[in-house]
Amino acid sequence: MAAVQDGPMELDAEKEAKPEILSDGTSNLSGNTASGTLSSSPLTAAPAGGAPKMEDQQTLIAVLQFLKRNKLSESVEILRREAGLGEHQEGSQATDGSGGGKGDGDGGDANSLLSRVSITSAAAPQSMPVKKDQPDVSVVLSAYSQQGDPPLYQVYYSGLKNFIESVLDCHRAELSQLFYPLFVHMYLELVYNNHETEAKAFFDKFSGDQECYYQDDLHILCGLTKKEHLKGNEVLLDFRTSRFVLHISRDSYQLLKRHLQERHNNQIWNIIQEHLYIDIFDGMPRSKSQIDSMSGSLAGEAKREVNKAKVFYGLLKEPEIEVPLDDEDDEAENEEGKPKKKKTKKDSLGSKSKKQDPNAPQQNRIPLPELKDSDKLDKIMYMKESTKRIRLGPENLPSICFYTFLNAFQGLTAVDFTDDSSLLAGGFADSTVRVWSVTPKKLRKVKSAGELNVIEKESDDVLERIMDEKTASESKILHGHSGPVYGVSFSPDRNYLLSSSEDGTVRLWSLQTFTCLVGYKGHNYPVWDTHFSPFGYYFVSGGHDRVARLWATDHYQPLRIFAGHLADVTCTRFHPNSNYVATGSTDRTVRLWDVLNANCVRILTGHKGPIHSLAFSPNGKFLASGSTDGRVLLWDIGHGLMIGELKGHTDTIYALKFSRDGEILASGSMDNTVRLWDSMKAFDEVETDDFTATTGHIHLPDNSQELLLGMYHSKSTPVTHLHFTRRNLLLAAGAYNSQ
Amino acid sequence: MEERRFAEVPRESIKLMAESSGVELSEEVAALLAEDVCYRLREATQNSSQFMRHAKRRKLSVEDLNRALRWSNTETICGYGAQDALPFRPLKEGELFFVEDREINLVELALATNIPKGCAETMVRVHVSYLDGKGNLEPQGTVPTAVQSLSEDLLKYYQQITRAILGEDPHLMKVALLDLQSNSKIAALLPYFVYVISGVKSVSHDLDQLNRLLHMVKSLVQNPYLYLGSYVRSLVSSVMYCILEPLAASINPLNDHWTLRDYAALLLSHIFWTHGDLVSGLYHQILLSLQKVLSDPVRPLCSHYGAVVGLHALGWKAVERVLYPHLPAYWANLQAVLDDYSVSNAQVKADGHKVYGAILVAVERLLKMKALSLTLAAEGSGAGLPGTTTGAVGFRENSPGLSPPPEPLSEPPLGIASHLQAGGAGCPWEEWTPVSLPAMYCELYSFFGDSLAVRFSTGPPLGGATPPGPCQPLEGRKEPASSAPNLENTRKMPQLTASMNISPRRDGSPRMEPQPPSLAATVPGRSLARSSSSSSSSSVSRSRSSSSRPGRSTSQSRDIFPKARFPLPQAGPPAFSFIIGGRQMGRRCQGRRFQTSFTPTPPLTTHPPRAYAHKLPVIGRVSKPVRRWTCSHYSLHLPL
Which of A30, A521, A585, B545 is the most buried (most CB within 10 A)? Predict the structure, then answer.
């Protein structure tokens, strides 16, 4: 019961913690987006003052505890006096251990419970970016100071195990979820209290019972045998700082509670109270497969409240552009290609005839750059191309064009295509970025300033004249990074290229001059991925420091920081409407962030390995994610539900892409294959009745084989990137691997 | 107890290492250190694996570990960055293991002359593949070749070949065509060649070029290493263009576009019978387009001619199916042309005669084949047939019915004619109800009268087609034996070889009986007849004469034919190192009397007006099975 109560509290705490990170100082965006930008988000200012104070207090309490434990009573006195902390405050903290031990957490315990909660949650965001947070670590670890009888741990655990195995089938699957978090916490408790041999014995006895998808974590765990090791280990820090979330039906929970109370199994009950968050729901217990499909992440499943926020997943209204009426065939074919465009053609003078998508965010929710003339031209090109688009489907699979990087001995680490498929960029482990022209048009630099002065600026072909013909070549190399380039992304207008690197920077390159324009510093740790907004100007990056950052190209500081992942942010993608950002992480969750206020609006769990690829469907409703376990998961963003699982790949999926109309999902993997999936069918078969929508208990049909439409093999070329041209030809890229 | 799955550093090692740097460690400290070292190593390894994953590799590299160390503020390890695995070896004397680390003489390295060349530049290559509807990868070498970038050599080859074929030098052209039909490495160029060939439309004024392009088609089709795939369609449409279009070149009556159409028609049938299976519905499409042309009175006569020849080349079934039902309607138009004796109409009338001749030849064969098929059907697989012919017999048996199109390549190596015949037998006209032979004969007779070379005793009684049937095959069978000396072989495909001695006697040869021709023989015979008919305005009679072998034909026609024919062999150089497709005049194929016409090498120059007559052999040749072609070289001798 207590767990249920403290849910909202924790939420509050999180909310308070966030704005501190969010503040982005002065951000008057110049240029096209001169008007109000993201900086003035309503949430930033108000609570910012409160949070640090509270955190300070927590830290002080932690220090006091530390001092006390080490019998430094004089220092304790001094500190207490200086900080002006009342005895009672600390007292409540101190009673933690015994209070928890009393067993049932409903009554007078609420107070201590609250403080405990606030400690953990406050510590979480703070400990993320930096490592200097020793006091917090000890706070966190201090939760283990209480101890039962070490040899009895095995008895406790096997007692619970016997109980769970003896309950009815329907409850067993649900209660089995407890095994893993309890196991880890008990083990860590033993380690923390220096019961090395008991810990080893405990681990050896029960590690085999855990679900196979926790193997990676167990590996790390089994190496930990000393208290000292705990301090530096970030994974375990994650485990501590976040409460493991379980979804359990009310019946099962009652069953468990009754059992634990009958047996007076306080040790386990304490752990459940302190380190687990049990999200109780009414209704049928879930089946084993339902549970398995959602579990696997580092911190358990997502709390249901987290995914309740409304997400405006609809697409923004297309800007109205007058399409030149010269070509008739364009018009004729328009019905199937882009009906919307045709409409805009008619109401060329901007009447508001087109309905706003009800699920779309307001047009100016996120300020977007104004369209330049060249952008409009490009849009028109896009419309023309899209009329010639091939309608894909199960009967009509795309042809594939594979761009193989040869002689890439230095190691190809990232690839991107421009939207119009005219340029190809590769990031390499030798810190270089190379840009190729895929079309016969060569890459040319702009002339030097001196030469530019000579050019007559009024001439019609001035854009042509400014290019230096002497520099024409098929590819250009961009030097500047000092570490492997892990992510590259073209701007939609093809004027810029972003690259993120191990050196902790994101760089913006000009494709006119082929020089570096800006180095965005902020991550301080390897930046694993970066992605331009579909409208340009903004971009997102994510890295080893566990946060994703939102940047604007003309700001050297991030506009937003998306903090919350418990491990590295491995991949980042912008939603097609630019209002949201999806991030995939090593903590095996996908999160969706609101660009407006940096809130996490979706936490999607179910992957069993680090996530390395993400793709939004073109209509913005769905998200696909691929991980190291070779599975692709499909998500309904609106409901926050998993709606499909595509099994087939045998290795990490590094590339995902929907076809332009969203009928086909292509996935590319380390196993040298590109697979095509029938995404339409996958989306159609989803049961989105109210029940599943509210409970989130989705029953996934195992139909990967039916959804698999085709497969392309390469001989020895892992697929690094996939792209659909505007006409729906599939482009893939990867480096030939001679070994 | 489960075994821990990682290596541990023994405390002895720690002590050793400490000693080597001059520190004495107690047992306890060493144990603690050992454990901690193990843990830190594992941690570093785990951290480094994420660098590996992000570099999209499967192999953990030293560099990855160094990065992990650097990010955890530890000094990196230098000297292990080599690509190759470093040898790890034991020392015999003690229990010592070490990584071999040879000393490198830097001076030597610096002054070395064999400076390693920089590794090849990083580049991007494109490869295309596509799935068929069922999600299976299409076989390699089909479309992907289109996008393959051509190597320098291929490009050069392509230029040379096209230049040679389209150029002036006949010798060069011959070599080029030969190579084109035997080169096994030109798959990548196929789309380019197909593209060149599709250029027929732009050279419709130039018969010579058209001819060259057609020969190019033939060479490509013959090349056993090429998988034409869907390019067949493109090739066919180019060939059809030559058959059916009122080419610009045909405005000038001196231009012999008739021969071109004949050649193209045979080429068409060849493509179809050898590659028709690549494109579904091809046969039907061809027939439809031919029919469309035929039924369009606005089209010029030369187009109609093309349609008729095309149908003829596709086999007697096609004729029966399309031409025959259409004949009554068409006849009226043709008659009008032929009956107009005005001067202004002279040219048109001449064309009309051509068409007339072509139709005649086609229906004659139709009659023959039909009679034969009936006979055979009645007979069953005649026991008397030589074993080798059984295949053909089988087809014939089926022919009246709705047998599926036979797989042409799997056939025993029959002659050209047999191919066609097989094709004729296989026309898949399911819904069609055949007209009985007598009725057909009567109707045709009403059009052509005595011009019809095929006779069935008398018109009306002929109804019982059976009587002639049985005797014909028998006779036919005997005859080959008798004529063996002249002909290459009694069995199938004598017609392919040029038998040198074609004596006039053949014409006058005793077998005057109207034999149901062996199918093999018929086709070439017909083509010959057709082409010969084109040589003069009296095509009708000539064609009739060609078919006159059946003794019943009018003597007049017979006379003409020999005359037309004989000069050719004589004029031609007697030395036939190359084989010319036999013009089997023997429509009585039974007899397999095949006459080879000997083409003089520069025939055009010598007898320009008769040029096409010389080409007859070409037609015969075209339908030869691929295998034979590959080893023959005569094709290049065609007078163009």
Answer: B545
